[in-house]
Amino acid sequence: MSGAKERDERRRLRGRGPSRDASRACDYHRLRNPFEPAAVFSEDRVAAIHESALRVLEELGIKVLLPEARMIYARGGAIVDDDSQIVRIGRDVIGAALKSAPRSIDLHSGAPLRDLTLTIGRLTFQSGAGSPYVTDLIRGRRAATLRDYRELTKLTQHFDVLHMLNPLVEPQDIPMHLRHYHVTEAQLTLSDKFPFVFSRGTPQVRDCFRMIQDFRGLSTAEFEAAAHCYTIINTNSPRQLDIPMAQGLIDFARAGQLSIVTPFCLMGAMAPITIAGALTLSHAEALAAIALTQLSRAGAPVCYGAFASNVDMKSGAPAFGTPEQVKANLGAGQLARLLGLPWRCAAGSAANMNDAQAANETQMSAWGAVLAGATVIIHGAGWLEGGLTVSYEKFITDLEVLQTFAELCTPVPAEESDIALDALREVPPGGHFFGAAHTMERYKTAFYQPLVADWSNFGTWTENGSKSANERATGIWQSIVNEGATISNSVERVDALSEYIQKRTREGGAPPES
Amino acid sequence: MSGAKERDERRRLRGRGPSRDASRACDYHRLRNPFEPAAVFSEDRVAAIHESALRVLEELGIKVLLPEARMIYARGGAIVDDDSQIVRIGRDVIGAALKSAPRSIDLHSGAPLRDLTLTIGRLTFQSGAGSPYVTDLIRGRRAATLRDYRELTKLTQHFDVLHMLNPLVEPQDIPMHLRHYHVTEAQLTLSDKFPFVFSRGTPQVRDCFRMIQDFRGLSTAEFEAAAHCYTIINTNSPRQLDIPMAQGLIDFARAGQLSIVTPFCLMGAMAPITIAGALTLSHAEALAAIALTQLSRAGAPVCYGAFASNVDMKSGAPAFGTPEQVKANLGAGQLARLLGLPWRCAAGSAANMNDAQAANETQMSAWGAVLAGATVIIHGAGWLEGGLTVSYEKFITDLEVLQTFAELCTPVPAEESDIALDALREVPPGGHFFGAAHTMERYKTAFYQPLVADWSNFGTWTENGSKSANERATGIWQSIVNEGATISNSVERVDALSEYIQKRTREGGAPPES
Predict the structure, then answer these.
(1) Does B430 contact A238 at a Cβ distance shorter than 8 Å?
(2) ipTM reported for the complex, 2 dp
(3) What is the pTM of this model?
(4) C-beta atoms of B453 and A319 within 8 A
C-alpha cells in the first residue's frame, strides 16, 4: 500500500471521531502503553505466589481430561495418573516451557496495516466477546444471530482501536456443527483484522485453519510459519483442563497459531476468596496450559492470561469493575512480567443495561488492565451482564474510553512552540486565545474529536431532543452497520470460501467435541 | 471519642455500602494514593515549563485589580505599574514564597475523625461544586435553593470518601448579601467536615470566620493558629487576578486559613491551545497567587492547583474527561511535585444527563487526577454540564467510583494464609470454593459491597423493575436526605450561630465585593 493510500486508508478506517477531521491523524494501530505498570505486591510476594503455583502443579497437579494431552505431558516429564487423570508437573517442565515460549509474537492479518506484535509494553484492545445474547435500543434483548455477529464484525472492523476480531456473540440461529464456517466467513470477508477461532475440537479447528489459509492465499508452510489466527483457552478452574481446551492448545501449537491462555477465576467461587489465592490458582493453570503448548511444539506462540474478579458472596453472582478485580489485574501483571510473556487481561461489567454502573464498571476494570500493563485487553467494549449480553450501544460508548486510552498513548509535546510564550505575550490579561495565531495554526488538529460525547450546552442539547449517550450511540452503530462493503475482497477467494463451506456442509459439517 | 465509639461512628458514617456489613471496616478517611504518579513530560520539559512560567511573571506580569494586593506585591519586591495594574514578579519573590509555603497542612474539622492532612501522597475527594443549577429524577432541573444546598451537605456528610465540604450549589433563593450566612450555617450544623468559605470580599469572609470560630469554640489565636476552613481561588485567566480573589488570598493568609489556588485554564479559550502552553499559564498564575499569600503572611497554608481542560474548537464549549484533560492533569502533577506543595486537581463532565458519557468523563478525569498524584480532587461526584448543574443521582453513581479508589488505597495481603494452598488442596478439580473453610472465614469481609451497583442477573433485575443505576441512586439519596440529624450539635452554639445571623441580617448583611 502506498504512503498516501495508506494514510487515506487509515483515515477511512479510523472511526467517526477523528475521521470527521481529516487533517488530524492519530495512529490507533500500534499502541505502546504510556503508563509504568502499577504493583499491589512486593517483589517477594510475587515470588511467593509463583513458588506456590509451582507447588500446586507439583504437589496437587491438574486434572487433564484429554488422553493425548496427558501423554504429551508424560513424555515431557510430568507425572501422570491415568485413573485420576491428574497430571503433576515439575518446575523443570515449567521452566523449559517458559524458556521456549516467545517473548514477542507477530500476528499476521489480512492487511499489513492490521498486523500486530504482542509483547510486554504493547497495548491492544478487543470488544466484549462470547455472549449468547445481544441487545440494542431498536431490537431489544434477544438470542444472538449470525446477522448480529456480522454486524458486530463490521463495527469491530470500523474502529481502529479494536485491534483483533473476537468471538463477539454466539449466532444461535446456526447449528453448532456449522457455526464455525459462518463466523469464520464473516470475519474473513467483512474484516481484515486478526481472526479468532473457537477451540471446539480438532475437526472444527482444522476447517477454520483451512479457510483462513486459503483465503489468505498461503501455503501450509507459510500458514504454520506465523500466527494467522488465535484461540482463547479457559481452564475449568479449579485445576482442570477439559477436552476441547486441551485439544485446542495442542492443535494451535502444532500449527504455529496463537493460544491465549486465560483462566477465569472468580474469587470465592471457582477460586479462593483472596486475591493472592485466586492468582496462585490462575497462575498455576496458566503455566500448565503454556507448558502443554511448548511440549506440543517448542516456540509455539502463546500468551499468558488472567481474568480474576469476585462474586457477590450473598448471591454468588459474578461482579466486574470492582476494586478486587482492579487489584487482581495489577497482581496478574506482576506475575506476567515475572515470566516476561505477552499477556491478556480483561475489563467487564455486571450491569444489566448501559447505564452509569455499566460505564463505570467497564472503565474501572479497563484502567486496572491498562495499569497492569496488559498486552491484550478483552471485553473492553459492549459487555453487559457479566458477558451474557453484548450491547450495541455500550459497544459505542465504551469505544470512547478505548479511544481516549489510545490518545493517552501519544506523547505530549513541550517544545518552545508548545509552551507558547509568544501566544501568552499576544493575548492581554483577561483576553482569550480563540483568535491567537498560535491557536489558528492548531485548532483543527489539537484535540481529540469525540465519538459519542455531546458537549453542547443544555439548551442546544434539549433542542436536539435531549438524547442520552445511548440514543446517540444507536445512530452511530446504525450508520456503520448500514454502510456498504468497507474492505475489498478477491471475488475468487470469496467464492472459493463459499464453495468450501457448501461442500463441508453437505459432508455434515463438524460437530463440536467435548 | 473512645475506640469502640469511634469505630461505631465510623461504621455509621461510612455510607451505605460497607455499613450494610458491620464486620467490614475499611477506613476511607485518611487515604494514601497507592499509585506512583504518572508523567507526560521529561524532567527537562518540566523544568522548561517552570522556567517559562517564571518568565511570564517577570516579563509579562499579571494584572492585579486590587490596589492593596499590588501594594503587598510591591513591598515584596515585585515591579508594579499602577496605571496598567500589571505586576511583574521576579523569581526571587517566587522562590521565597515557595520556601515559606508549608509542605504539609493540617486541616481542623468539627471532629478529630474528620481532620485531614494535605501533603503530596495523600488523597482527598470532594464532590462537584459551584453549580447554579441542580437536578434529580424527582424534581427535575431547576435553579438551586438553600434546601438543595442543605440536602447535598447532608449527602456529603454521609459518605466518608468525601473528605471536605465545598460550595456544592448556589442557593439562588437567598440574596447574595445573606447567602454566606446560610451556607455556613448549613455546613456547621449538618456536618462536622472541613468547611468552605467563598472569597466574595472581606466583609463576607470576616462574617464566616466569626461563625466558624465561635461555633468551634475557639479563641481568635486558636482559630488563626491552624486551618479551620478554606477558600478556592480562581484566577481570571489569562494573567489576571480580580478584586475578590486577591482579597481572599490576603484575608485567608492573614487569618492562617487555607487558600486553594486553582487557575481554570481551558485550552484554546482562556489559555493556549497546547497542553504545555496552558500549563505554563496556569503555573504562572498559581505561582503569583501563592506568592501573594506568602507575602501577606509567610507560612500561610496554601495549595497549588490546576484545572486545565480543552474546549470544542467548533463551538467553544468546554469539554471534560478528554484525553487532553488527563494529560494536563498528569503534567500539572509533575509541576506540583517540582514545587513540593500539596495540590488540587479536578475531574469533570460536560454531559447534560447522568448517562454513559457522564460516567465515563468523570471517571476518566478522576483517574487522570489520581495518577497525577493530586492531593485534593474536586468535582469527583455529581458534576454535569461542565459544572452548571449538580445531579443528585450522579452524585451517588460517581461515589461508587470514589469508593472504589478508596478501596484501591488498601493493601493486598499475600501471606501464606492468603495464598491459600490449604484451600487449593481442599477443593477438588472442577469443584468450588463456596463452602471451603478458607472462604467461610472470610466471606463477610472479603469484598467491597457496592453502593449502587446491582449485580443480580437479568431475570431478577427485570423482576425488580429493570431499574437503571440512576433510578436506584434516587432511592439512595432520598433515604439519606430524609434521615434525621446525623451529628449532634451543642444547642447553645446552634442558637448563638442563629442569633449572629439574625443580628447581621438586621444590620444589612454583607454584599459581595467586586
Answers:
(1) yes
(2) 0.95
(3) 0.95
(4) yes
